[in-house]
Amino acid sequence: MSSVRTASAFAPACVGNVGVGFDILGHTLAGAGDRAQVTRIDEPVVRIAAIEGVVSGLPLETERNTAGAALIALRAALRLEHGFELTLHKGIALGSGMAGSAASCVAALVAANALLDVPLPREALYGYAMDGEAVASGGRHGDNVGPQLLGGLMLATATRLVRIPVPAHWYCALVHPHHVLETRRARAALAGAYALHEFVVQSANLAQVIAGCWRGDATLVREGLKDVLVEPRRAPLVPNFARVQQAALDHGALGASISGAGPSVFGWFEDAHAAHAAAEAMRAAFAEAGLSSDVLVGPIDGPAAEVLA
Question: Residue 171 and residue 87: Cα distance in Å, rounded?
């Protein structure tokens, strides 16, 4: 039996979808995240003791909380005789498009895993993380939890995680306006018919982005990082989106789109200087719509969740 009774873990923010990879492509971004403190208890249940930080009003009922649901799935699959008590410290705002619900889920799993008699490999936590994420989004998808578990840019299928190499000097700028856009509302905007040629174009764009990252070919990425499926339907939900996107492109972005379900907007850049300059221009574009905003700038090849000392 493990002698350690309490562990804490941190999971970073994430850019879900990366425009062209709806529900299957994402990357982490340093600078914001959620922390979970998990205590191993003798009672065979999962309890949420408290939720603190920048978000209030999240459910303490375990089954209705992404982190709680993930730990329930872990306990059931491993047939654990013991349970967990969880305290969440939220550092990512609700409805921000920065994968806050996924970060809570992954941080809780990573902390709980550290308390197991035989901790699982990170990849083995993936399914439980998707179980938790489904509570918030209504479906099991890994474009947020996958990168948060393993770090970097990730192709996340229903059963597999494939890390995609990205040049270390390529940077992401993400601007989060102080405006809430709930994931379920953003997903509802995607209802309706799609033309076959749109899927063909989007598939080609996704392939160019992945190939370009693997080869370190910015020209391929610049050609491919254009979302023709999701962005047109969600753009009206993001205040002043066209101006914010154009601000990124005017500063040399390889591409720019909506982060996750929005309203945050991200851009990819070939170096840190361009990313920082673009972030300020993107922030100014949101200000034109009367919105203050926060900025994250960091390598696309971002960090994984980590157990805290």
Answer: 32
State pLDDT tens for residues 76-111.
999 999 999 999 999 999 889 999 999 999 999 999
Burial of 139 (C-beta count, 10 Å sphere; 0-12/13-18/19+) = exposed
CB contact burial 209-248 (16+ within 10 A = b; e otherwise) = bbebbeeeebebbbbbbbbbbbbebbbebbbbbeebbbbb
Residue written as token pair 């949101």: 286
**11 neighbors 44 (Cβ within 8 angstroms):** no
> Of 261, 254, 263, whose CA–CA distance to 300 is shortest?
254
Q: Which residue has the tokens 């409805």?
A: 95
pLDDT, one tens digit per residue, over 34-46 is 999 999 999 999 9
Burial of 12 (C-beta count, 10 Å sphere; 0-12/13-18/19+): buried
150-188 in b/e burial notation, b at 16+ Cβ within 10 A? bbbbbbbeeeebebbebbeebbbbbbbbebebebeebbe
Residue 187 has a pLDDT of 87
User: 163, 36, 47: which is closest to 92 by C-alpha?
Assistant: 36
Q: Give CA–CA dist 169/173, Å, rounded.
A: 13
Residue 254: what residue type? Answer: L
pTM for this model (two decimals): 0.95
